[in-house]
Amino acid sequence: MILPLTGCQISYLFHAAAGQFRFLYHAVPVEEVLQQGSLPAEQKRRLALVSRIKEFGENELGLKESGNYETIT
Length: 73
Description:
The protein has helices at 10-26, 30-36, 41-59, and strands at 28-29, 71-72. The protein contains 3 helices and 2 strands. It is mainly alpha-helical. 59% of the residues lie in helices and 5% in strands. It has a domain at 28-73.
């Protein structure tokens, strides 16, 4: 078993996993956040820019489409 050789205690691993789960559980689609109007204009502009950059990469550069950068916590 490799786990004992990592130097991580089991309690730390559970703590880290719980933190990741919280991020995933509270994630909201970027498009939903942009429509809500709860962010300042500058943050909304930056989020929209990320979506445009992602779209450019997929459509113009042939990068593989994925669900990355489509949610925010």
